[in-house]
Design goal:
With 199 residues, this protein is an alpha+beta fold. The chain has a single domain, classed as Mog1/PsbP, alpha/beta/alpha sandwich (Protein Transport Mog1p, Chain A). Helices cover 30% and strands 38% of the residues. It is built from 5 helices and 11 strands. The strands form 2 sheets. Strands 3, 4, 5, 6, 7, 8, 9 and 10 form an 8-stranded antiparallel sheet that branches. Strands 1-2-11 form a 3-stranded antiparallel sheet. A hairpin with a 4-residue loop joins strand 9 and strand 10. The radius of gyration is 16 Å and the shape is globular.
């Protein structure tokens, strides 16, 4: 995994954070069936407008033998790197890294990711940890998120595991400034919603 571009963080106090993946996993809990239907109808009517205007195209992961596909806004920087996808928002407030692993190698991948964050001087407030499990477009998924700090100030970090098959996992690292997360909320929702098993 290469070092992401420096994030242009806006300083704010760290607070409890729920990652975009966790929000997608839990978005309909506790809502009546009627409200859920109305929300889906509204989303179905409005989302194509955003997708036509803002989506760059479909990326496969891994590139040669895809397990999943995902779509990103046209002004975001997306590139293949060491077998994974390296993604930075247009305002450089959000960094995402996604790569694929065998179930047997996932522990090392998680350790490498945590070591990478330490190297980048990201500190995590363990007291803000949130865990979510559920389905993401039919795939089992688990998400761990924290509030923390990096060299620019407050940041939100999450680590998500998505299982497109029984023996493969997608590891998704998310690192963002709180302000950038708010500004890019609609794009993040569309990105997470676009992560689907490869056909």
């Amino acid at each position: 995994m290469i070092r992401p571009p420096a994030l242009k963080h806006c300083h704010s106090d760290a607070e409890s954070h729920t990652s975009p993946v966790a929000i997608q996993l839990t978005r309909d809990r506790g809502k009546s069936e009627q409200i859920v239907r109305m929300k889906k109808l509204l989303l179905a009517l409005l989302l194509p407008l955003f997708i036509v205007a803002a989506q760059a195209g479909e990326f496969k992961l891994p590139k040669d033998k895809p397990l999943i596909t995902a779509t990103f806004p046209s002004d975001w920087k997306v590139k293949y790197d060491e077998g994974g996808l390296d993604i930075t928002s247009a305002d450089e407030e959000i960094y995402i890294y996604m790569d694929a692993h065998d179930n047997g190698s996932i522990d090392k991948a998680i350790k490498d990711t945590i070591d990478y964050l330490k190297k980048e001087k990201v500190t995590i407030d363990k007291g803000t940890e949130k865990k979510s499990e559920g389905k993401l477009n039919g795939m089992d998924a688990a998400d761990f998120s924290w509030s923390g700090k990096d060299k620019d100030g407050a940041c939100n970090v999450s680590l998500s595991l998505i299982a497109p098959t029984k023996d493969k996992l997608i590891l998704l690292l998310y690192w963002a400034s709180p302000e950038g997360e708010k500004k890019n909320a609609a794009a993040l929702k569309a990105i997470i919603g676009s992560i689907k098993p490869a056909a």
